[in-house]
């Protein structure tokens, strides 16, 4: 994230929105994914998507 913007400056709102949209789309896909032959949900489990906190 730091590489995308000047240090101490917020990221552009449009970029933040795009990142969130793509993350939500990926989660939606994983949650809705089914076995092509049976139609049963695959039950994909993803890792925690919470941002890391500074120490």
Write structural notes for this entry:
It is a single chain. The protein is an all-alpha fold and about 55 residues long. It has a domain at about 10-35. Helix content is about 35%, strand content about 0%. The chain starts with 12 loop residues before the first helix and ends in a 23-residue tail after the last helix.
Give the key terms.
36% helix, mainly alpha, 55 residues
- SS-based class: mainly alpha
Q: What kind of sheet is the major sheet?
A: none
Amino-to-carboxy terminus distance: 16 Å
Radius of gyration: 16 Å
Protein name: Protein kinase domain-containing protein
InterPro entries: Kinase-like_dom_sf, Prot_kinase_dom
Domain Protein kinase: 1-55
GO molecular function: ATP binding; protein kinase activity
What are the SSEs and their pairings?
Blueprint: H1 13-32
Q: Can you summarize this structure?
A:
The chain is an all-alpha fold and 55 residues long. It has one helix and no strands.
